[in-house]
Each structure stands twice: as C-alpha cells, then as structure tokens.
Design a protein that fits this description.
With about 140 residues, the chain is an alpha+beta fold. The chain is built from 3 helices and 8 strands. Helices cover about 25% and strands about 40% of the residues. The protein has a 5-stranded antiparallel β-sheet with strand order 1-8-3-5-6, with helices on one face. A 3-stranded antiparallel β-sheet has the order 2-7-4. The two termini are about 15 Å apart.
Length: about 140
C-alpha cells in the first residue's frame, strides 16, 4: 500500500502535512503496522516536531539559517556548488542534517505520534516548489 503526497511550498517554512498522512491511512483502512515517509528531493527535509507553538518552527528555521546561510554570505565563500542560486547548496547542507525519511508506528489505525507532534516537510529553498513525499504502509 503506497501513496504519493504532493505539497506546494512557497519558500522556507515548516509545512505540517500530518492530516494528509492521517487521511490516507484512514482511506486504506490501515490498522496495525508501520508507515514510512520519504521526501523525493535533496533540498528539503522531513521532521516530526512540536505542532502547538509556531515559535518552535520559526526558531528551527532561524537555527538552520545560522548553520548554513545563503552562499552569498561571506562565511560561505568556500562553497563550489552555486550555479543554482545562493540558497541551493545551503538547502542541501540543511537536508543533510535533518532526516529525509521517517517511520511512524500505527496502532488501531492511528499513528502513534505524541500529543504535541506533527509531521512536517521543511522547505529549505526560497522559490516555490512542488514537493513529493512517498508513503508506504506496511501492516504488521
């Protein structure tokens, strides 16, 4: 049982797509098992993160920009891959420190996420993108 989730992004942000995963699991009548998600791009990431306070996502994005500012920042003059714009290689760096795949247990048809956890696609590029997340449910 597999599925493709498409998300449209508009610059750096944390896009909560927990509802889309939950809906798909309900549509396929998933019971007990494991859902695996993998983003099909190299300049964005997946993350399970707090969904109650939006300051958490803002702080996360701020931290990522501190560790990998745009290529035109003086501290990033060592970068070689700059042909796709000043945000591209830093996006790849950010995607290398955050996961690009997640596994979430499912029991009784519900993902076993904590009370304040949501599933996010973290967009690292400035321009709008159409992102795809491959999903597969494996019954136990």
């Amino acid at each position: 049982m597999n599925h493709l989730i498409t998300l449209n992004t508009r610059g750096p942000a944390c896009h909560d797509f927990t509802v889309q995963v939950r809906s798909w699991l309900a549509d396929i009548d998933a019971r007990d098992g494991l859902v695996t998600l993998m983003v099909r791009h190299t300049s964005c990431s997946l993350l399970i993160q707090e969904n109650a306070d939006p300051d958490v996502q803002a702080d996360l994005l701020g931290w990522l920009n501190r560790i990998a500012p745009p290529a035109d920042h003086s501290s990033m003059s060592w970068l070689r891959h700059t042909a796709e714009g000043p945000d591209d290689m830093p996006a790849h760096l950010k995607a290398s420190v955050l996961p690009v795949s997640l596994q979430i247990p499912v029991a009784g048809g519900r993902m076993m996420l904590g009370t304040w956890q949501g599933i996010y696609l973290v967009e690292h590029r400035r321009a709008p993108h159409r992102r795809e997340v491959a999903a597969i449910f494996q019954p136990s």
